[in-house]
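Hello, quick one for you while I still have it in my head. Could you read through the record and tell me how the tokens relate to the sequence? No rush at all, and the record is pasted right below.
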Amino acid sequence: IIQVGSPRSVSRLIQRAGRASHRPGAGTDVLLVPTNRLHLNEYAALADALDHQSLEPIRPPEHCLDVLIQHLVTMALQAPWHPDAMFPEIQASWAYRDLSEDTFNRLLTVLVKGSESLKEYPEYRRLEQRDDGYFLLVSQQTARRHRMSIGTIVSHAHVRVKMRRGGYLGEVEESFAGRLRSGDIFRFSGKRLEMLRLADGELIVKPAGRGKVSEIPRWTGGRLPLSETLATRVSADFQRQRPLSERILNRQWLKQALEETSTIQSHISHCPRLEATMAEQFKTRDGFHLCFYPFAGWLVHQALGPLIAARVAERIPATLTVTVNDYGIEVLSPESEPLDHCQAHWSSIVSPEHLTNDLEKALNLSELVRRQFRATARISGLIFEGYPGRQKSLRMLQSSAGLLYDVLHQYDPEHVLLNQAKQDVLRDEFDIDRLHQTLHELSRKPLSIKVIAQPSPLALPLVIDRLSARLSTESVAERMARLTRNFHANH
């Protein structure tokens, strides 16, 4: 097995290693090829975790109400059922052990009439209740449509990128388009584009002006988050004192490489410690940089970075650019005052209080929920994708789900499936539980900051990620050489 880059978690490494040597009791050799110097630290941590059988905890999904609605219709396919018998049966499942009777009754309302605002539309009626209290399907057509919709895998949608005055440039994934806010800049089809609006399955853009930071569209599966188990070991053993695992075949070479990274990092800046939040501040021709390293993984950082920037911008006028990776977050400002304010009020900036409300302000959360609602509505059966050979187009599904979302959001904002879609976004897009835990840890730990003259080995990947998205006559390799020219001299 050849693993290019880092598997990002212990469990994922085991799963991939299991693809070879399919013989009882046989071991597996895995060749790990780093694409980043810090991947070597992850490899050492992976071997330690395997020695101690330290795997990531499994978190089974809970309270998936869209799946439960589908299950209730499936049960009605085989025989009518009574809620007094069905409710305790559902509660016996781990995922729904805390399901309240009120929520269960609201699900029955969804099955019987969709919602109070949809009760006049017969296509949203799937079950009806007999006089004896049993629920059964309303028609054979409902049964046929449900059989065609059973399952929970929803394909990733794409949206077309269209110039405001012009033609189409291509397609990007809706997951990327949904994160953009009006005025955001991104590079696509060789052009720098400014996002205007997302409507009817089309991303309307115009040419962007100069001097604005851009980003490159990301595709689902392109970035896997660093697991909490692995991140803790990487930060704790950055200045490694104990010997490497016997599992590693080229231990001497890896030991020298890790010592070199630690020495360069210590000479330019300082190294991570579990008892403090490490941060670095430096200045380049791009502006003033503040880099801090929670080691919480990319999913958490992509919410934490904009959250911190938004909280700073609320207190002091600022234009901030945020870049994140698995190790840390870079906040770039043309002026030093916003970053000084962030340091001076660190504990309140990273407070876990009002987290959801502040996330809604910092991110395009409503658009992300709208996008997720289509998957939720499809799984629960509120929208139908069509029969085989006569499937509805993506644009039709987007329009149907968007219209349904708008109606429920306006007339039934507490609808169980709207809440389900929002919770799915917070869990899947931002790992809200780990984000809350990270904020709690950051708020109680001191900020250990050091002013440095050049990017350190930890800061350099953040700088390179940002520079890679910029249009320049200077190649990324040339800029990397310029930024790292003093590494070995200092070493």
